[in-house]
What we know:
GO terms for molecular function: ATP binding; inositol tetrakisphosphate kinase activity; inositol-1,4,5-trisphosphate 3-kinase activity. With 279 residues, this protein is α+β, with helices and mostly antiparallel strands. It has eight helices and 13 strands.
Amino acid sequence: MASSKRVILAEDVKLLMSQVAGHTHDKEKSTPGMLKHKDGNILKPLLKPVQAKTEIEFYEGIATSPHAALLSFVPKYYGIGSITLQSFRGEVLILEDVSANFQKPCIMDIKIGRQTWDPYAPPSKRESEEKKYMECKRDLGFCIPGFQVYEPESWQLTKFDKKYGKSLNQKTIRNAFSTFLNLDKKENAACIIEEFISQLKRIFNIISQQISLHLYSSSILLMYDCAQLGSNIEPAVWAHVRMIDFAHTFTGDSHDKGPDKNYLHGLENLIQVLSGLKS
Length: 279
C-alpha cells in the first residue's frame, strides 16, 4: 500500500456519469460506483482487500516492470485516497480521467479473455464467471459489458448495459461495434477503426513479447470523441485505447511463467472483428 493517503471530502465528488461497466452505484450493496473528483480525476473504490493490494501493486510497479512499455496504454496513477460517503467508507484509487478532453465521449468496455477468473478463484466464482457472457467468451475470447455512444447529428446519448452485452454472440457482435462506431451515419468513422487496430496491435505485440504478466478479468476501453467525426484532426488525438482493471493481475513471481495466451487470444479476435468492419 502507498505510504500516505489523501483525504477526500464527500462534497468534492460525484458519480462518474460516463461509467459503462463494472461495480456501479448500489445503495443496498453499499457500493458507490466510480466517482469523479472536482479536480477532474477518477476515483475507483477499493472494495476487496486482496484485489485492492494487487491493483495498487500493479499501478505502483508498472514503470519499473518488464511490461513497462504498456504504461502509455494505462491511466495515470496518482495514489490512494480515503473517503467517507453514506454508502461507502474506505480507500479509492486516484486515476486519470482518460476521456477528460472529449466533448462527446463514446466509450466501450471490452473484457478480454475466455477465462475471466483468476487461478486462485474458488469453484463458486469460476462457475458464476463461466455463465456470464458465455457465447462471446467461448467463441471470441472477449465480451462487452457495456458502452455509451453519441448520435453525431442530434448528440443524443444512448447507453447499452450488461443485459445487452449478454445477448450478444459471434454473429451479432458486429452490430454492437457498428452502433458504437456510428458506422451507418458517418462514412469517415471508419478512420477510428484503423486507429483502434493500430493501438491494439501495439498492446498485442508488447504482451506477446513478455512472459511475466497475466491479466484476468481485465478490460480494454475503446474511446473516441464523437464531436470530432468529420474534423481534420488526426484520429490519434481523439480515438484512444486504454487498459483498465488490474485487480486480478499475476506476474511471474505468483504465476507460471509463459505468454498470456488467454489475453492474447481475446485481443487477437478483437482485432479481427474490427478489421472485418472495414469491408
